[in-house]
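We modelled the chain as a single entity of 419 amino acids. Its sequence is:
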Amino acid sequence: MSRPSALGKDKPPKKHKPAGRDGREPGAESYLDTFQRRFRGGELGSLPVALGLVLVWVIFETLNKNFLSPRNLSNLSVDIVGVGMISIGVVFVLLLGEIDLSVGSVSGLAAAVFAVLNVQQGMAEGLALLLAVLCGTAVGAVQGFFFARIGVPAFVVTLAGLLGWTGLMLYILGSSGTINLDDNGLVAGLTSFYFNDVAAAYGLAALGTAGYFLASYQDARRRRAAGVPSRPLSEITVRTGVLAAISLASAYVLNQFQGLPLALLIFLVVLVGLDYVLRRTPYGRMIFALGGSVEAARRTGLNVELVRISVFMMSGTMAAVGGLFLASRVTSASQTSGSGNLLMDAIAAAVIGGTSMFGGRGRTWSALLGVLVIQSIASGVALMGIQQAVQFMITGGVLLLAVVIDSLSRRAQKSHGRV
């Protein structure tokens, strides 16, 4: 009979820590290990842009003490809405790995259509607003048709749209070139109306925080029931606490000036709604599937052409909505509507916020984070009286850095077999 080895006798089998039901090791060390593993694997999430935003705010607050004043932050919360709405539509297109260069022109066209119908033709504001938004939807459908059905590259189609829709806008505006909107009208009120009651801002903060906790908790329960890894309750609680602190601080700052802006409220509702569409509906999963691999999606029976057309319709619709908010900010539609650096800002916001230009990765919240960075830079530069050329250089550098991070992230994911 053979004797047990001394090695086996002296060293009993190593006991492992019991893992939680969600498949994660309990404790703070496991969270740190998980973060390090994701970081090495290229799963950076919103961390780079969040750190970048904090850095931008610290720098400009150091240089000018009015940067983080309630007045400036309140104005910033309204300034981000127009570009942010357009950027949300850009996120949808980027998820396919494509680009839409016409969003600036479409936003100007929608503003011109509304101004002509309402001011010159006497149409009711509500109906004129609806037709202006539908104009953007129709433009997206036309461009999506040429891209998805005819096979013209999206870059070429939307570049032609950039020129064509700008020309149509100028034709619609006519010789005057500028149409002033009613200062007390519906569209003007989109960016000028504030909820002065302090309960509005605090109520929105509390509602948003509670909604996030319930959604995260229910998602964790469903994942545990399905036997797949999920966030433990402790992590959900910490995330909720951080969100609550940010939300309540924002509400406090807004209430120090004029209260909760209607424009910001609409923007957040649209963000949450479209985030749900992308992450919780079959349509959203189709978009991510196309962004991952068109051929694989086609072989599963997905109607590739229809999804592609619908995405460009979404981009056109959001461009029109953003154009109306921009027109509301200046209470007019003019030949300069949709021009300047609007196109670059909308695309840069989506990319800086974390949406990959290679497709398949991104969220609507990318638009919020990215546009906050861009508008914060613009606000800081304006407060300091620096030339706009400096703003362009800073924004260009931030955009290049975001794309570099995205490229390095994809390379790390490929090395780990995740792309």
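As a brief sanity check on the tokenised model: The mean pLDDT is 86. Residues 47-192+281-401 form a domain with the ABC transporter involved in vitamin B12 uptake, BtuC fold (CATH 1.10.3470).
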